[in-house]
Amino acid sequence: MKKALISDIQFYSLNDGPGIRTNVFLKGCPLHCEWCHNPETQPPTPELYWKRMLCAQCGRCMEACPNDAINAPIDPGIAMDSDSTYHKIIRDRCNNCMACVKACLYDALVVVGEDRSIDDVIGEVVRDAPFYNNSGGGMTISGGEPLLHHEFSAELARRAKEKGINVCVDTSGYGSWEALEELARYADIFLFDLKHLDSNEHKRRTGVGNREILENLQKLSALGERIWIRLPVIAGYNDSMDYMKGVVDFLKSLPNPVEKVDLLPFHNWCQDKYGWLGKKWEMKEIDAMDYGDCETIRRMFEYSGFTATVGS
Ligand code: SF4
Ligand code: SF4
C-alpha cells in the first residue's frame, strides 16, 4: 500500500483552487524558497516543533532523549525573550525517535510529518464531500512538492476522481515531465507557481534554476490542461511593473491561454513556524506587500486579457 509523508491535512480552505477544499500537504520539496510559508514541508523527513511559549522548562524531554539532543532547562523568561536564540533541540544530534514528544506534558513538542496511506487520506478527504458539492470545491494536493511523491500523488488523485471529487495540484513545476504528465491524467486544475522568469534569479532565491519548470509549463499548456498561475509577489524581487509585463508576454506565448493568474502578496505570518523549527526567518527585513501595489499589478493583468485575483 502506497504511503507518503504528510505534514498536514487542512480542511475548509478557500484559497487553493475553486470552492471549499481539503488541502493535503506532502512533506518534501526540492526547492528552498527564501519566503516559503510552509518551511515544515521542505525536508522529506519528520521534524519536531518546539513551541517555546508552551514550554515549562521542566526537563522531562531531556531525561527522555537517548541522544543528548535536548538542552537543559533554563530560566523560562530568558527562553521566551523574543530576541533569544536559545532553542530546546540540538538538531544535528536528533534522530527523530520522538521519545521527547511522549515525555512532554505541555504539548510544547509536536511531530510534523506522518507516513499515511492513500486509504487513510482519502478517508479524511471524502468526509467533506457535501461541502465540495455545494461549493464547487474538492481536494488540493500541495506541499512540499507533489511531484516529489508523484506515484502517491497520481494514485491519490485517481482515487479522488473515482469518488467524483475535483482535484487540484499545487506544484512548483520542478520534476520530471513524465511525473507531471501522469498527474495530468487525473488533475482538474494545476495551480502552477511562477517565482521568477530569470533562471539565475530563480536559483538565487529558491536553490534551483527554472529551465525545467518553464518547459513543463509549456508542455502542460500544450496538453490543454486547466492552469492557474500563482505568482508570489515579493518586494524588490519580482514586484516591478516591468517584470510583470515580461510575465504577461511569457504567459501569452504559451500554447493555450491560462485560466487565471493569482497574485500572492508576500507576508510574514509564518515566522512562528521558523522559530518552532529552530530556523532563522531570512525575510525579516522584507516588508509585507502592500495590497494596493498588488491591485495595480492585478489590473495590469486584467487589461492584458487575463482573469487575475489577489490571493493570500
Ligand atoms: S526526537 Fe528523540 S533524539 Fe530527537 S530530541 Fe527528541 S528524544 Fe532526542
Ligand atoms: S518536556 Fe516539554 S515542557 Fe518540559 S522542557 Fe521539554 S518541551 Fe519544555
End-to-end separation in angstroms reads 35 Å
Task: Give the helices and strands as they follow along the chain.
Answer: EEEHHHEEHHEHEHEHHEHEHHE
- CATH-derived architecture of the largest domain: Alpha-Beta Barrel
CATH level-3 fold name of the largest domain:
TIM Barrel
Report on the architecture of this protein:
With 312 residues, this protein is of the alpha/beta class. It has 12 helices and 11 strands. The structure holds iron/sulfur cluster (2 copies). One iron/sulfur cluster binds next to helix 1. One iron/sulfur cluster (SF4) binds next to helix 1.
Short synopsis of the structure:
With 312 residues, the chain is of the alpha/beta class. It has helices spanning 60-64, 76-80, 99-103, 118-126, 129-135, 150-162, 177-184, 199-206, 211-222, 241-252, 271-276, 291-303; strands at residues 3-13, 21-26, 47-50, 109-112, 114-117, 138-142, 166-171, 189-193, 226-233, 260-265, 308-310. The chain has 2 domains: 3-44 and 114-310, Aldolase class I (TIM Barrel, Alpha-Beta Barrel); 47-112, Alpha-Beta Plaits, CATH 3.30.70.
